[in-house]
Write a structure and sequence with these properties.
This protein is of the alpha/beta class. The chain contains 15 helices and 17 strands. Helix content is 34%, strand content 13%. The relative contact order is 0.15. InterPro entries: PBP_domain, Phosphate-bind_PstS.
């Protein structure tokens, strides 16, 4: 490089350095106006394994932003108990405090608290059935059949009711091994609440009374196996000795294990999988207690939309709200507030990929109302720009705040999933929507189909339709920015906490980098051309 080009390059780089410093100063000034951020402290939580996979993802994301969050599963009952005993900073549970649990133990907290929703999902039934050494991946069951399997009324896979659910397709004589939770589990509570509501004549004689339970009852002499935690249920079902087994877990577990799930019959007469879309559709019928944010899912169970997955629900976070809470400090409350903000907003962009369903606008708004209680307890907590207006959530429509993007864009089930048709040959447990892409070979009546082609093309395949946005991949709506043609703009989930001013300096720096890439080579090239021209004319 000639001395002149070198001088020009250094001058431009020096200018860029000054501009960068100016951007940093502007961002710092903006933060000072908004209120200097409170330093973070490590917070600890325990509870649900149903939602643990996505919670651990969020924890990894926010660590880059200086937040240290430690979460240990152990089950919803443990989380609620730990919170009541003030041995954690927050808990996660699928059900609220019961007052007294089904075993007669105290299940309440004198420590002041609030519930807030963090993520939605479907309780899935994952199984292992092999025919000719091949794993069956397109099993269909009605709710009644599922209830009878988990209460010991159906004990073999060749049962006539299972054959009927699969439109005459038969399975070999193979004993059924139900795998349930041994610990106090929100997943168990959600499952048994559904059975108690929809199949009381099957569930109540088995349980011995009405209502839900967090501790699944097992009977002496049955083939039922009890395991602690969702991961152990999943490992048991997919294990070497798991042929014939079926267990209940959140959909994310079989998705991550690449294992099949049951398509469950809904009220409209279609067998559907608990993917993000079918769950979002089902939860449009949920009723929310406006005071406690606890959920009434009876409408979800009987949602007549053909896409609705009937056993859909969401997890609660339990947070401390007292100004005198002995575990909490300003920095802990700030960490908790910002972790929740990320979880409700940008963190929801990861939910679908992990086998969950993002929260909708009404639940996110309600969540922010609960977060505000942290500031009520301690006015030093900074909640500036941490509200629904700055929230980047994939269910939001930028033009219509009442529009649930996921529910409205959810594809309809295929004709072969209707009662009396099919069954479809499509592989389950792939986290792909029902419609679009290759469906593989259809299972034949009387035969035990063992799968088929992958369900749908990979994300981003040109010519496919993105069911979240409705845009054709490769079209202007789906390229570049992640907007969906409906006014929605999604966040960059790598900006971990969406803190005020985070995106501005990065945007300006990107422009400056582009200018550097364009201007410096251009100037250098121009100078070199003039020198060559001068030599040729000499």
């Amino acid at each position: 490089m000639s001395p002149r080009v070198r001088r020009l390059t250094l001058a431009l780089l020096a200018g860029l350095a000054l501009l960068t410093a100016g951007v940093g100063a502007s961002a710092a000034a903006a933060d000072d106006v908004a209120g200097r951020a409170v330093p973070y402290s490590t917070i600890e939580g325990t509870g649900s394994t149903w939602s643990e996979l996505i919670v651990q993802k969020w924890i990894a994301d926010v660590a880059a932003n200086g937040m240290q969050v430690v979460y240990t599963g152990g089950g919803s009952s443990k989380g609620r108990k730990d919170f009541a005993q003030s041995t954690n900073d927050f808990a996660i549970s699928e059900i609220p405090y019961q007052g007294v649990d089904e075993q007669g133990n105290q299940d309440k907290s004198d420590r002041p608290y609030a519930y807030l929703p963090i993520v939605a999902g479907g309780t899935a039934f994952t199984y292992q059935i092999k025919v000719g050494g091949q794993l069956v991946r397109n099993l269909r069951l009605s709710g009644e059949t599922i209830a009878k399997i988990f209460t010991g009324k159906i004990t073999n896979w060749d049962d006539a009711q299972i054959t009927k659910d699969n439109n005459g397709r038969t399975f070999p004589s193979l004993p059924i091994t139900p795998v349930v939770r041994s610990d106090g589990s929100g997943t168990t509570a959600q499952f048994t609440t559904w059975m108690d509501s929809q199949y009381p004549s099957i569930w109540r004689p088995y349980f011995g009374r009405s209502g839900l339970t967090s501790y699944y009852p097992t009977k002496s002499g049955s083939r039922m196996k009890a395991q602690a935690g969702s991961d152990q249920v999943m490992n048991t079902v997919k294990g070497f000795a798991g042929n014939g087994s079926i267990g209940y877990v959140e959909y994310s577990y079989p998705v991550n294990a690449n294992f099949p799930v049951v398509k469950v019959l809904n009220k409209a007469g279609y067998y559907v999988e608990p993917d993000r879309y079918n769950t979002a559709v089902a939860l449009t019928a949920a009723k929310i207690n406006p005071t406690t944010l606890t959920q009434d899912l009876r409408g979800v169970y009987v949602n007549a939309d053909p896409r609705a997955y009937p056993i859909s629900s969401y997890s609660y976070m339990i947070i401390p709200t007292s100004a005198t809470d002995k575990r909490m400090t300003t920095s802990k409350r700030q960490t908790l507030a910002d972790f929740i903000y990320y979880s409700l907003c940008s963190g929801q962009t990861n939910a679908g990929d992990y086998g969950y369903s993002p929260l909708t606008l009404n639940l996110v708004k309600a969540g922010f109302q609960q977060v505000a209680k942290l500031k009520q307890a301690d006015p030093a907590v900074n909640l500036t720009n941490r509200d629904v207006r700055s929230c980047n959530n994939p269910t939001f429509d930028g033009k219509n705040p009442n529009h649930n993007v996921l529910a409205d864009k959810a594809p309809q089930p295929e004709a072969c999933d209707k009662v009396g048709a099919g069954p479809c040959g499509k592989v389950t447990g792939t986290n792909q929507p029902a419609a679009g892409g290759s469906t593989g070979g259809a299972g034949t009546k009387g035969g035990a189909a063992t799968g088929g082609g992958a369900a749908g093309g990979p994300a981003g395949t040109p010519g496919t339709v993105d069911p979240e946005t409705g845009a054709t991949v490769g079209s202007p709506d789906s390229s570049g920015a992640t907007g969906g043609g409906d006014g929605t703009v999604y966040a960059n989930p790598t900006l971990a906490a969406d803190r005020s001013g985070d995106q501005r300096p990065f945007g300006v720096l990107a422009v400056l980098e582009l200018l550097a890439l364009v201007i410096i080579p251009g100037v250098a090239s121009s100078v070199l051309r003039r020198r060559r021209h001068a030599r040729s004319g000499a």
